[in-house]
Write a structure and sequence with these properties.
- Chains A, B: InterPro entries: HTH_LacI, LacI/GalR-like_sensor, Lambda_DNA-bd_dom_sf, Peripla_BP_I.
- Chains A, B: GO terms for molecular function: DNA binding.
- The structure is a homodimer.
- Chain A is of the alpha/beta class.
- Chain A contains 13 helices and 12 strands.
- In chain A, the strands form 2 sheets. In chain A, strands 2-1-3-4-5-11 form a 6-stranded parallel beta sheet, with helices on both faces. A 6-stranded mixed beta sheet of chain A has the order 7-6-8-9-10-12, with helices on both faces.
- In chain A, helix 11 links the parallel strand 8 and strand 9.
- In chain A, helix 8 packs parallel to helix 9 and helix 10 packs across helix 11.
- The interface between A and B is large, with 47 and 47 residues.
- Chain A binds a DNA duplex through helix 2 and helix 4.
Chain lengths: 340, 340
Amino acid sequence: MSQRRITIYDLARAMGISASYVSRALNEHPSINPEVVAAVKKKAKELNFKLNSHAANLRQGSSKTLGVIVPHINQSFFSEIIAGIEEICFEHNHSLIICQTHESFQRECLAVDTLVRQNVDCIILSVAAETTTTEHLESIAQHNIPLIQIDRYLDQLNSCKVLNDNKKAAYDVMQSLFGQGYERIAFLGGPTHLTTFKQRRDGFLQAWEDSAFSNRTPLLFDDVFDLSVVTKVIDQLLQNENRPDAIFTVSDHQSVAVLQKAESLGIRVPQDLGIFGFANETFTAIMNPSLSSVDQKSKELGIRAARVYFDDIRKNNGIPKINEVILETELMTRQSSIRR
Amino acid sequence: MSQRRITIYDLARAMGISASYVSRALNEHPSINPEVVAAVKKKAKELNFKLNSHAANLRQGSSKTLGVIVPHINQSFFSEIIAGIEEICFEHNHSLIICQTHESFQRECLAVDTLVRQNVDCIILSVAAETTTTEHLESIAQHNIPLIQIDRYLDQLNSCKVLNDNKKAAYDVMQSLFGQGYERIAFLGGPTHLTTFKQRRDGFLQAWEDSAFSNRTPLLFDDVFDLSVVTKVIDQLLQNENRPDAIFTVSDHQSVAVLQKAESLGIRVPQDLGIFGFANETFTAIMNPSLSSVDQKSKELGIRAARVYFDDIRKNNGIPKINEVILETELMTRQSSIRR
DNA sequence: TTGTAAGCGTTATCAT
DNA sequence: ATGATAACGCTTACAA
């Protein structure tokens, strides 16, 4: 039952050769006769030998593993990103360790800790909503682990970034809403210490200024991200006499809350209220009415982030040539914002 | 820039003590003066020291890490399971490595390989739909790594299991549908080599036999799980003259497909067609009509699975006392199956 | 209480 | 082409 793990020494003994030779054979070192390679691999399979990664990593100082930290893994936006990263890791024979922060700063620190201890070759991070400081992230660099920020990011942190053009996307959404004849458009934003959300806010404001309604005060609500907060704000907003005729949110879950509140108040969507979200979560397409949303090309975001590591950072000895990758977004205009 | 990683030797030198003493201090060994512990930890923070897990694991033969393998991480059923496992791992100061198979057998083998190489202390697995053989899973035991199957499982494999009472749940769903006056109830099943799906099928058949319609042939479709397959079957089923008046599926994604097809054909749900799914995915509650589904208590499944490892397997030196944990389910009867 | 030294399973260097 | 040996960073007997 409790037999020891099979090591290369066991293999070596079983085959009458040395451990170092076995190691080289398993790694297909060029100096080794292909027949020997085959024989060793066959024996390894026979004895159910599995390489001990810890030993190999310790020796090599590299773990052939990337780490990814996201707020939630059960949002299709992030799980698509992860799928993209996985795809590229797979191509390069690397593993992936996934951590989720649940938007908590403390969990983010913990995740960073875990990944550094695991000696991952690179960390891909989408910042938690709670995070305002960068100390825990700066420490990553001291371990010579490259950091790539993806989607959500902190501007003050010096790292590669893979992003959307959030300002443009938000601007485009506003054009779409104006085009549908909506005039009193409210904006439900996220935490503005994250540049990503600040940019969406900028896009909203820019579009407002460029519009025929620029003399009116824009209906802007910052940091309405948490479900409990967003519910309260929507309550007030929709029960108000001068309620908005459209609501643009920086996430799809905010949009769902808006839709549900509207339904409970008998406000018709999209006739009386237009709704536009962000991230193109899977459920937006199957809801009824279906929810308009910004497709951020999440899987491609993941692919590009991983490629920044493999094709740029790694090839240039840790010093990236590319600093920012900007991906186009696509407006998925659905029932919730089409009334013409 | 490219400084070496800080080790306990660096700490030791900086403090004028030995490395082993540092190690013990960091691990809060009882023999160590609390002041020394504090001082060492302070210095460690100051120098941004992070323990090299690979080295520690290699030495200790344990990684303080669990591994979990699931078909998809972006289904709330599985992500809730993971959240549950995470919670318990966190309590016990363990990390978690998450792998997804995308229902592919090959990917599952790869994930097992990765986790064994990473020397995880335990593997929690929900089998991929494609998997019919157990060889790759039996090899896990040879490495003295305990395996816990969760939700989806292969009966022929000797391992701990954390499950729902699937037969009962399916039986209950049928009672609910009969209670709503549905009579021609079709069953869209999954791959029956996975016992989980076989049990749901059994529950359906049992309920059928116990019903007033037992003389009629049950409308049973096995292995209608893949989206492309399910779409075809639904197409035929709903365009048929004698189409069913209710459809019970073993997953929520099948139910969504049914709902969408029904809508496109102008079949009213729930009046003309009742729909009942399985897993209680997040989106089922926000759809319109909302989808009835079986709540499998997914987070609790995860919690219990992790506890089987920490509270049972680990405490009994790898030999579990508990072999099966069965969790009750709850019927979430929503708009899609209520017509009375 | 503190230090010395061996060893975990690999791989890389240096021989042969 | 093949083998001996040291080293990766840590923990743990054992010694002092």
